[in-house]
Amino acid sequence: MDVFKTLALFILTALAEIVGCYLPYLWLKQDRSAWLLLPAGLSLALFAWLLTLHPAAAGRVYAAYGGVYVAVAIVWLWSVDGIRPTLTDAVGAGVTLLGMAIILFGPRPAG
Predict the structure, then answer these.
(1) Is there a domain that residue 44 lies in?
(2) Is residue 111 situated within a structural domain?
(3) d(Cα 59, Cα 64) in Å, to the nearest integer?
(4) Rounded to 10 degrees, what is the CA torsion of 25, 39, 68, 73?
(5) Predicted confidence (pLDDT) at residue 39 exceeds the cutoff of 70
(6) Where in the sequence is the domain holding 93, given as residue range(s)?
(7) How many domains, the chain?
(8) pLDDT at 1 (0 to 100)
(9) Residue 50 domain-assigned (yes or no)
(10) Could you tell me where the DSSP H helices lie in the chain?
(11) Is the residue at 110 inside a domain?
(12) Which tens digit of pLDDT belongs to each residue from 63-111?
């Protein structure tokens, strides 16, 4: 799987997870409708399915995905919650993306 497809899949996966967790948050913390739990559950099921589409070992995929999740969550903070990320938010997201790239795209021994 090429780099751009992998990153796009990770971003889509992160959005599915964030939506799946954000909707129950709206219900529990902001007194929104309990009906939000239905699309939340579907979104989390989509999240789990998307993780299976990567050809790498599951543990490596989960570890690398974590870095992308952090970066997407910071973008969510800004675009949905309306809170501008701090310099340390941006640096932290950059560090996690660097870690993701090392884990997922680093050289592997043959065999």
Answers:
(1) yes
(2) no
(3) 9
(4) -30
(5) yes
(6) 3-105
(7) 1
(8) 58
(9) yes
(10) 3-29, 37-51, 58-79, 87-105
(11) no
(12) 888 899 999 999 999 999 999 999 999 999 999 999 988 988 888 887 6
